[in-house]
Amino acid sequence: xxxxxxxxxxxxxxxxxxxxxLTEACYVLARVRSVAAARSWLHLAPVTSAVELDxxxxxxxxxxxxxxGLAALGVAPSVIAGFSHEFVSGMTEPSRSRRLGDxxxxxxxxxxxxxxxxxxxxxxxxxxxxxxxxxxxxxxxxSGWNEAFDELQRLHTGDLEGHEPFGFRDGISQPEIDWEQSxxxxxxxxxxxxxxxxxxxxxxxxxxxxxxxxxxxxxxxAASEGLPSAEDAPNKKDVGRNGTYFVLRQLRQxxxxxxxxxxxxxxxxxxxxxxxxxxxxGRGANGDPLAAIQAEKIAGIEQEPEVIARNQFTFDAxxxxxxxxxxxxIRRTNPRNTDYVGRPxxxxxxxxxxxxxxxxxxxxxxxxxxxxxxxRRGREYGPGLSPQDALAPAPPGEAERGLxxxxxxxxxxxxxxxxxxxxxxxxxxxxxxxxxxxxVGNRQAITGCPVTGRFTIPASGRLRRRMSGLPPFVTVRGxxxxxxxxxxxxxxxxxxxx
Length: 498
Ligand code: HEM
Prior knowledge:
This protein is an alpha+beta fold. The protein has 15 helices and 15 strands. The protein folds into two domains: 3-174 and 196-248 and 479-493, no CATH class; 254-376 and 415-475, no CATH class. Strands 9, 10, 11, 12 and 15 form a five-stranded antiparallel β-sheet that branches. The chain has a four-stranded antiparallel β-sheet with strand order 2-3-1-4. Strands 5-6 form a two-stranded parallel sheet. Bound molecules: protoporphyrin IX containing FE.
């Protein structure tokens, strides 16, 4: 597929851009009040596509729907049933909560939004350059909005200039989408690459297995005529094409608790505390990785010097985690492994295929990361707080701060949920014991593992450091699975194709 054939014009911009230059944003969670008014507002909404303009736009608008939201808009149950089970059953289905680690103080019963009557039907995302957000929202919500929707929440976002609230640079590593579909995902991958098949992020295209992810395929009729045909079933219309799932979770961060805990662990030595914090994340506060930058090029890492200096690394040369702890947040969420970890030659691969020569438990859970990538699109919220100021006690009534974690993926269970469950919440990740993700872990006991609050920093030639009693630093405050449709599908949902 050549660049001109890429369907940027039918894809919402958020898939291609993080809208980083639009530093102000607000996510409005709403429920449909009147179907007719909602359809008409959505039909007129100037939703931003992924087409690159000569000049970056000053504002952008994106919309995404939950399964109850599609039903509320009048989309037929048979069409909704064609979406993935995770999307249809929702983020708070009880067994899913257990798997996501949404238990105890993270349980949906404690959430501010996202359960029973507070499940949103849709999220409308407004993005704008500095000082432009209020005007944008006023303009777009002026006519018809109040008749169309009941607002549940406005999720305001902040701008900590590229840092998340704990103070670490964020948004550095992202997979590169193979928009041109020029790369061949099939066959064993023996070297780590950052490029990922288009079908991992957009429905209607081949994914890393060379297959098409399930999505609603419907018969052509007057209502669906304007939809694209399915690549794998040309006589059907593809409701999913150029759409993707948008996972949104409001994660409150206890910034004071984070710094107070690690400064205490460091015996009051701030420089040492910063090193512990970096070990927990896997990068220093400025974003530099603890792993060594390698000379060999990683496919799909852009050639800009800053990107190379921050992303051209794997953990292959650091099997014991001496430079970057095995349990560090970025090593858990992207172990940068291949299908045949550490087996570059054919004989070793054959031995591995036959089930011999496994490197303990380590390889089992961390190989083939190419099936488990997500595109992160989160934004922070709440006032900034420097690590030094975080050492003081909280003033009464202090405002909450955290991350509106957001990611895009075509297969929620294989991508977001796998990262969350098998990698961040798993206290046996990569043969570790008794620890879950030091940054986002919930510290809840799980079957067979009553302790999850440790963190180990391996060392070479001296004793490793093992901390215990890590409190949870992140609490889930709300969340939902949305579908971010292609623009033709959006018109279909609003009945505008008739
Ligand atoms: C409040 C919660 C969180 C904080 C403070 C946080 C912080 C960070 C930071 C500082 C980085 C390094 C910057 C970068 O590589 O771009 C990072 C990377 C990353 N995080 Fe998180 N994160 C949070 C939640 C999550 C969750 C819930 C997930 C997924 C389940 C996740 C997945 C990732 C991934 C995939 C990367 C990139 C790893 C790589 O490719 O090297 N994060 N995060």
